[in-house]
Write a structure and sequence with these properties.
Layout: H1 15-46, H2 66-100
Length: 101
C-alpha cells in the first residue's frame, strides 16, 4: 500500500528509508484491519446477549462515549507529538548551526 503526497510529506531521507517507512506503515495497517475484523466478529457473536442499563447517579456528569474519549486522547497525543517535533527540530537547528560556523 503506497502513501500519497498529501499524507506523507517528502523529506530529505534516502529512498530506501522512505520505502521502509511505507512498508512499516502498510504492515501496521494490515494488522489493524485484522484486529478490526476480529472485533466485528466478536461484537456480532455477543450482540445477542442481554445487557443491563447502567444506573445514573444524580450530580455526576454523564461519561463521554468511548469514541469521544478516544478522539480526545488521540488529539491530545497528536498535539504533544507536534510540540515534541517542533522542540526537536529547534534543538537540532541550534546544535547543527554550531558545526557550520
Amino acid at each position: 500500500m503506497s502513501t500519497n503526497a498529501k499524507t506523507t510529506p517528502k523529506s530529505e531521507m534516502p529512498d530506501l528509508a522512505q520505502k521502509v517507512r511505507e512498508q512499516v506503515i502498510s504492515t501496521v495497517q494490515q494488522g489493524q484491519q485484522l484486529s478490526i475484523d476480529a472485533a466485528q466478529t466478536w461484537v456480532k457473536a455477543v450482540s445477542v446477549l442481554p445487557t443491563p442499563d447502567l444506573p445514573t447517579v444524580p450530580g455526576i456528569p454523564a461519561v463521554p462515549s468511548v469514541e469521544a474519549a478516544t478522539k480526545y486522547t488521540f488529539d491530545l497525543a497528536a498535539d504533544l507529538l507536534n510540540a515534541q517535533r517542533e522542540y526537536a527540530l529547534q534543538l537540532t537547528h541550534v546544535l547543527g548551526s554550531d558545526k557550520s560556523a
